Amino acid sequence: MEFKNLQKTPLWTAFSKLGQRIFLPDGIFYWSGRAKKESKLNATIGTAYGTQGDLFGTDDQTWTILYVKKVAEQFKIPPNEMAEYAPIGGIPELRQTWKDWIAYKCQKGAKIDVKPYLTNPLITAGVTMGLSMASALFMDPGDHLILPDKFWENYSQIFEVIGQAKIQYFPFFARGDFNVDGMVDVVRKSLQVKGKAMLLLNFPNNPTGYVPSPAMYKQIADKLATLGDEMKKPIVVLCDDAYEGYTYDENAATYSLFPHLVNRSAFLIPVKLDGASKEMLMYGGRVGAFTLGVHPSWVSADARAVLDAEINNKLEGYIRGTISNSNRSAQYVVAQLLIKDRDELLKQRAASVALLTKRYKVINKLLAEKPLPNASVDPNNGGFFLLINVKGAKASDIADKLLKQEQVAVIPMEAPEVGVNAIRVAYCSVKESDIPKLVTAIRNVLTK
User: Fold this and answer.
1) What is the pLDDT of residue 95?
2) Which pairs count as long-range contacts for 352-357, CB under 8 Å and 24+ apart, including other chains?
3) Sheet of 411-415: strands edge to edge?
4) Which residues contact 123 (CB under 8 A, 6 or more apart)?
5) How remote is the C-alpha of 118 from its chain's centroid?
6) Do 272 and 98 form a contact (C-beta atoms < 8 A)?
7) What is the pLDDT of residue 257?
8) CA atoms within 13 A on the CB side of 199
9) Fewer Cβ neighbours under 10 Å: the N or C end of the chain?
10) pLDDT above 90: residue 271
11) Under DSSP, is residue 425 helix (H, G, I), strand (E, B) or coil?
12) Which of 137, 127, 72, 136 is nearest to 98 (CA)?
């Protein structure tokens, strides 16, 4: 495929050398796709077929994919949805319904219609794979990834260790809220040095549990759009929306930053990374989505479909060259949930959100009643965690003492180069009745 439209956009400039080079060849999936529509005898793909009679010793001549009945009985879904390969970019029903799902959330939360600007979501093996795609397609070794100084540790593994990017930090908080000016300063420097910037933001945040207000979302987007227009260089903003919807404070946004970034500056390239792991509490399903926001100035309306096809070709080229495709059975389940039972799904998930809201209120109330010695709690109002900054001892030593002396387990986070020394507390996995014991244990160890 030629990429004549894509080469005219800021997205092309933002791509890494691999991103510019990669494409999906007309290989097995191409020919098998044609075969399904055009052939009478299909000898293309390595998927075994036979008749129902062949499988079960009957006279049924229905042609079907060969499968093991005992395996199919465990799944309780149509055998072909369990056994067949998924298309490279995901089953069409899920791609379309996930696009609708994004549009629904953005309209309901931000009152912004993003649907005209969305690419067709690529289905990934969880949000982690979407992050890995972004690293490969946008970053060359030595490029900058911009992060707040408190972040999910796997970002370093994905972007720094594997992708060989150089992480540029800014302090997460300033004056008790998100540090917008610090973020803009680092993005500006990256644009000046590298000619492009990649910023990764995760709300609700892991590890802090912080969620911006709608006004803060608008401020972040306004500053980035202004900077993009001023510098005329691409700014890729990765929205890691793994915990979207888990907000426990009425003043915090219940939706993603993503809609505020769409259709702003032509140089602002928003990428939404989300999935079923947390949104549908299907941690092991490993169903994620990678969706780009396309600026209308990039190409004419007549050329938009061609541009989308070019983008899709590159993304599918990466998937084909790494995992080929994602779990079909999990994709089918998620698609059916969103197509047939979205309202019931949201209703049932609301019970879990309400449960976590109670825990959030209890732990923050207890922590606020009496200041922790040599420690402070970061602003938090959503997600699954909160972060306690500790002084006077290494966070790993505090975590070790908690485990040995109190049989309480937390995650230590240490980054001395940026002054981070904290313990992450996952109250999402602790009974509400046990939270007082958890807080007392932390207080005991910090006091000693």
Assistant:
1) 97
2) 352/281, 353/245, 353/246, 353/248, 355/432, 356/246, 356/248, 356/384, 356/427, 356/428, 357/248
3) 375-377, 386-390, 420-425, 411-415
4) 86, 89, 90, 91, 94, 95, 98, 287, 288, 289, 326, 331
5) 16
6) no
7) 98
8) 30
9) C
10) yes
11) strand
12) 127
pLDDT of 54 reads 86
Q: Calculate ∠ Cα 389-199-274, nearest 5°.
A: 85
User: Residues near 304 by Cβ (< 8 Å), separated by ≥ 6?
Assistant: 294
pLDDT at 71 over 90: no
How many angstroms separate the CA atoms of 348 and 384, rounded? 18
Pairing of strands 235-240, 268-275: parallel
259, two tokens: 């809609």
| Residue from 297, 278, 296 nearest 288 by CA | 278
Output the six-digit token pair for 183. Answer: 């973020």
The residue count for the chain? 448
Residues near 136 by Cβ (< 8 Å), separated by ≥ 6?
A: 16, 18, 19, 163, 318
Do the beta carbons of residue 20 and residue 6 sit within 8 Å? no
More confident residue, 420 or 70: 420
Q: Residues with Cβ < 8 Å from 383, sequence gap 6 or more?
A: 204, 205, 206, 209, 210, 211, 243, 246
Q: Walk me through the domains of the chain, giving residue ranges and CATH numbers.
A: 28-83 (no CATH), 92-340 (3.40.640.10), 345-447 (3.90.1150.10)
- Can you say whether residue 324 is alpha, beta or left, with left for phi > 0 and alpha for psi between -120 and 50 degrees? left
**Are 426 and 418 a contacting pair, CB within 8 Å?**
no
Residues 66, 72: Cα–Cα separation, whole Å? 11
E strand or H helix at 64, and its extent? strand 63-65
CB 337 within 8 A of CB 77: no
- Comparing C-alpha atoms, which of 159, 149, 154 is closest to residue 186? 149
Please report, in angstroms and rounded to a whole number, the separation of the first and last CA atoms in the chain.
65
Please give the Cα distance from 66 to 408 (Å, whole number). Answer: 49
- Exposure of 35 by Cβ count < 10 A (0-12 exposed, 13-18 middle, 19+ buried)? middle
Strand partners of residue 198 = 145, 236
Section 251-271 average pLDDT: 98
For residues 72 and 259, the model is more confident at 259
Mean of the per-residue pLDDT values of the chain: 95
- Token digits for 409? 């387990």
Which positions ≥6 away from 248 have C-beta within 8 Å?
A: 353, 356, 357, 360, 361, 381, 382
Q: Please report, rounded to a whole number, the percentage of residues in the chain having pLDDT higher than 70.
A: 100
